[in-house]
Amino acid sequence: MLLLGPWPKPERGLTGGARISMRSLVNYLQREEYPFLRLDIRPLESRWGLAISSLLVWARTWWSRREYDLIWLNASHRGLVYLAPGLYLLARLLGKKIVIRPFGTGWYAQYTRANALSRSLFRRSVLAADLLFLQTRALMTALANQGVHMAHLPTSRPEPPTSLQRNRATFSGRLVYLGHIKTSKGISQLLELLPTLPEGYTLHLYGPIKEPQYASLQGQPQVYRGVLTAEEVLPTLAQYDVLLLPTFFAGEGYPGVIIEAFSLGVPVITTRWKDIPEIVADGQTGFLVEPRSSSALRVAIDRLAQANYAGLSRAARLTFQQYHHENKVLAQALRIITNLYLAHSKKPTT
Fold this sequence. Notes:
By secondary structure, the protein is an alpha/beta fold. It has 2 domains: about 1-155 and about 325-340, Glycogen Phosphorylase B (Rossmann fold, 3-Layer(aba) Sandwich), CATH 3.40.50; about 160-325, Glycogen Phosphorylase B (Rossmann fold). It contains 12 helices and 11 strands. It has helices spanning about 15-30, 50-65, 75-95, 105-115, 115-125, 135-140, 185-195, 230-235, 255-265, 295-305, 310-325, 325-340; strands at about 1-5, 35-40, 70-75, 95-100, 130-135, 150, 175-180, 200-205, 240-245, 270, 285-290. Strands 2-1-3-4-5-6 form a 6-stranded parallel sheet, with helices on both faces. Strands 8-7-9-10-11 form a 5-stranded parallel sheet, sandwiched between helices. Helix 3 links the parallel strand 3 and strand 4 (about 95-100). The chain is globular and about 65 Å long.
């Protein structure tokens, strides 16, 4: 299998959800000793990096054509636009199967708003793939009558270390946000919330600052705690009682940080936005609020303080185990690929 996708580059601050999911997939395949050839779709990050990277990816796909039977492209919207048509054409010329996993949901909104020519090209490449892995149930419904061969592949994460799993009996007011520091993630609402919190509560923000209006946070260590490495995310998250994610990001799908919180039994307060209600059960694994409202966040925090915190924590952990555990989700994805497209051939070799 030729596995294509974005690779985390923490030294450049490139550690978003798509890259983390890609690394998780690669690590899983390595643990399972599943043979594959990995190719980074963004070896260059300059202004013209995506266009040049696409040429390099197409060339490498052609050069290594004897080393795989199936192409699996993992990409966000721009990656799909640049890469998918060429890869689809190569797959057909080479007699290979092609599987595509678009990250998030923003790609579909872009597709529906595109001009007729762009939509036609998208239909004849991305939507014509031998298999399209979709992150959310809403996307499955939207494409149900368009002749697309698809399967549900929700965001997943590996089992966290046992040392980070503990019984969470009570809520003690420790709030955390992990993610990009930018407006569409609800950072302004979190800063508005901060002075309204009850005495003894803490709210800490972690993540790369992406917009200049938040640069002053660098001088506020009591609130902003900097950027975490991948290895620091779970140990840090485990120190808190609840994850706050007041996002209204247009491309939001199933946020990976919610899955990471659930894996530790940490409930979530997040927005009733896009497809997030598919994974967060209001009042059971956390609380849903309307976007762009700091007062709604405060009400949800008060509800959490009065709720059965231990029950919320157990339900969050159970949701992870049932629906987002890497061993279940990715094993099922590989079974689908094998059963549908590799049934009459040997496993792809590198």
